Amino acid sequence: MRKYLLLLTTFFIFLFSSDAQIKASKLIDNALIKAKEENKYVFVNYRVESCELSKKLEHQMTNETCKPLYNTSYIVVDIVLPEEKAKTYFGSRNDMAETNSKVKGFPFWYILDNDGNFIEMSYDANGNNIGYPTTKKKVDEFIKIVGKTSKLTKSKLNILANTLHEQNNEQLLSGK
Fold first, then answer.
1. Beta partners for 129?
2. How far apart are CA 133 and CA 131, in angstroms?
3. Do residues 162 and 173 touch, judged by C-beta distance below 8 A?
4. pLDDT below 50 — which residues of the chain?
5. Spatial separation of the C-alpha atoms in residues 77 and 173, rounded to whole Å
6. Which positions ≥6 away from 152 have C-beta within 8 Å?
7. Do 42 and 119 contact (CB within 8 A), yes or no?
8. Alpha carbon 160 to its chain's center
9. Residue 12, pLDDT score
10. Please, how many CA atoms are within 13 Å of residue 83, restricted to the half-sphere of its CB?
11. What are phi and psi of 154, to 5 degrees?
12. What pLDDT is stored for residue 80 in this prediction?
């Protein structure tokens, strides 16, 4: 697992320019300080502004229903990757859309404890990026991770799941 994290870190170091990497590091460092003070985890979300799935995850995490729930357990750090870097990584815009439709690449997120240790990443048990969860199975996996790393009750986790299902135009899990 450590080798995988090292590879992932190296990927992001090369993906960003040095200035952007320094800014991202400062954001994460500041979030870790705040997380330590508030006894929370840090949820780091890398996204590309033009990516529809990135926009959906950002909306889900910042809407008036969900934001207070996330803020109960996490200091959220939102890092927007430069469009040109994403194009370099993904190739053409069509490739980027195709990649996102398969939930590879972005958004990519991970959760750190308040000492900066990796707790969870946006990968499921099969190594597939959950990113923004677009299926019931991926929503379940996302909620499982949030449940494991948060102070949220089952009913509050259902609220998060339901907002994801609503965004995905799926039947609600709770409120039957």
1. 123
2. 6
3. yes
4. 1-3, 6-7, 10, 13-14, 90-104, 171-176
5. 28
6. 69, 72, 73, 146, 160
7. no
8. 14
9. 55
10. 6
11. -60, -40
12. 84
Q: List the one residue out of 173, 33, 42, 63 whose CA is nearest residue 113.
A: 42
Closest-CA residue to 30 (of 19, 44, 17): 44
Of 133, 31, 110, the C-alpha closest to 77 is 31
Q: Quick one: which of 23, 17, 15, 43 has its CA closest to 31?
A: 43
Please report the pLDDT score of residue 18 as a whole number.
54
Total residues found in the chain within this entry: 176
Using CA atoms, how far apart are residues 49 and 58, in angstroms rounded to an integer? 10
Tokens of residue 11, six digits: 């990927």
DSSP 17: -
pLDDT at res. 22: 65
Res 3: pLDDT: 42
User: What pLDDT, on a 0 to 100 scale, did the predictor assign at position 97?
Assistant: 40
DSSP calls for 31-82: HHHHHHHHT-EEEEEEEETT-HHHHHHHHHHHSTTTHHHHHHHEEEEEEEEP
CA–CA dist 140, 152 (Å, integer)? 15
C-alpha to C-alpha distance for 56 and 109, rounded to whole angstroms:
14
